[in-house]
Amino acid sequence: xxxxQLRPMSPVQIAQTRDFIDGLEAGAATYWxxxxxxxxxxxxxxxxxxxxxxxxxxxxxxxPWYEGWRMNSWKIPGQSPFGGAIVPPLLVSHFVxxxxxxxxxxxxxxxxxxxxxxxxxxxxxxxxxxxxTTRATDKYVxxxxxxxxxxxxxxxxGNGTLYFRETRDILSL
Length: 173
Description:
By secondary structure, the chain is an alpha+beta fold. Helices cover 21% and strands 34% of the residues. It has a single domain (30-172), classed as Roll (Thiol Ester Dehydrase, Chain A), CATH 3.10.129. Strand 5 (129-142) and strand 6 (145-156) form a beta hairpin. The mean pLDDT is 87.
């Protein structure tokens, strides 16, 4: 398969783009159609030192507070003003979509994350297992565009600590 020379794409990206276009042509359900107010989904995630390394490297956030690892000794307790190493505060926000769009509700055609308001309540220690829960709280139309609003919480599976809250809006075709 070939693609536009100005937009080089891997075979996977080409296939995903083709699937997206085929879905549009077949009349795939929009996120607005798929979600009902009150729908709630959750997923557990263990935030390992490896996951933190991948995230911090990707966003170039090299804060020593996040270092729960060291070359040749690998996992260490780390240090921060909160005790041991902590998770970069917005890392968990990136996993919300993996809860909203899981195997029961695949990523919908024409949905765009347009807004989020995050509230960091407590530092998450590296190694914690958290439950990310998202709940559809509203559907509204603004400037003739349809939006679905979600309320998100991130809490510790073991001790119930509420670490993070977020409100996010998704525009839907």
